[in-house]
Amino acid sequence: MKVLELKNAHKIYNSSEIQVHAVNGVDLTFEEGEFAAIVGPSGSGKTTLLNMIGGLDHPTKGLILVENTDLSKLKPSKLIDFRMRNIGFVFQSYNLIPVLTAAENVEFIMNLQKKPKKERQKRTEDLLNAVGLGDRINSRPSKLSGGQQQRVAVARALASKPKFILADEPTANLDSKSTETLLQIMEELNREEKITFIFSTHDARVVKRARRVVTLEDGKILSDEISKN
Known about the structure:
globular; four-stranded antiparallel β-sheet; alpha/beta; single chain; six-stranded mixed β-sheet
């Protein structure tokens, strides 16, 4: 099932009378359950593209469709609600709320969604067990390693059962062991939850595990390949 479609997507920045085409006519479709990486050199448009897919930035031209909903047509309040219910985010810098425990961070979005307490607690416990942190449920971020914080961030992204998860350089601040652990967990969750993962990354370890690799250059798709792994 198709969960995301980009049609002739452009993002143009105007600076000192110079137009910069950060994203230049991108057409892409992602299906349910994909594990895909968007790669390319710095300045290729990866982060801009991810921000547009996530509704954090609007295309200058073209369509970003999440199950046929055009993100650019939603009013700000509707867009925030739509993102909360349909798109999960994992950032390079973890972005956990420091005063909340691991469980409270995971549960946060479900609180906003007004999910019943028992449902929130069970989903939180299941997800923290799935990412190997069932014994750290009451730990605050300052008591967790970088790898553990990123695993909490993945659990939080999955909490609302989104259509897809956007992961922007999620391994950039992690050592090799933490990276391998995190990627293995995300692969397992991808298979079990059937949620699409889309990475923006420079990390060869992420690219190696991806089942689809989209390469950008100068805001355009250079290649779009299914991995043989």
